[in-house]
NADH-quinone oxidoreductase subunit NuoE
Amino acid sequence: MTFSPEVRERLERDAKQIIGRYPKPRSALLPLLHLVQSEEGHVSQDGIEFCAEQLGITPAQVTGVSTFYTQYKHEPVGEYHVGVCINTLCAVMGGDQIWNELTEHTGVGHDEATPDGKVSLERIECNAACDFAPVMMVNWEFFDNMTPEKAKRLVDDLRSGKEVLPSRGPNKLCTWKDASRVLAGFPDGRAHEGVQAGPESLRGLELAKQRGWEAPQSAVAGGSGGSSPQSDTADTGREAPEEPVQAREITDPPPNEPGEPIGGDVKPGSQEGRNQ
Ligand code: FES
């Protein structure tokens, strides 16, 4: 174990706090892995042994979990870990092209870092942000509607120390280690900053409100917990909308640009507020 006595003492204190949140110590393994990752930037063998000691399980059990989830890195990554979504929708919208051009531009591949240690790249699967495809993430913050040019500029800015803002979420991009600490369960107080859901994500809700669409009562009442066989198939017998949704209605307003304010409700600390 090579953690210095001071670091180990601090990690033990944090680990105790995390473990205390769960009925069984081993349930705290995932946040504990983020905790050791926040210290070293990746999950080292020392980190694995620390988690095993704290939880009373074997290093093999910790390794089994930490190698299953791709958010845990076993080699150092960059200060800014950049993900490019190459899942189906993002791929056909340009994600594959972004990945190809970005790897050529930086000279690094999947889960590799640039020599200056500033940026690493990862091919990532669907980030549940398909309405902003193709998307990228930096330390798990979203950058929407990307292009190869924007992607290369983003990475260049990160490497040169220029401030970049995510399309949604916090007003400041934190480092990979800081993001890992938040995931370990130590909030940085930024969770409610910025735009949480962009207009694209809310468009279906808006259309439903405009047209008076409501969820079937059986679904509202609890779906599978309902009393009739129809409860499990809530849409059975539901009338189709008379007016089909027009393409114009789902593409207006145009997609937002990374770093630019996006429409929708302005919340305290949102991008709109900070760009005025
Ligand atoms: S496919 Fe990229 S966010 Fe869903």
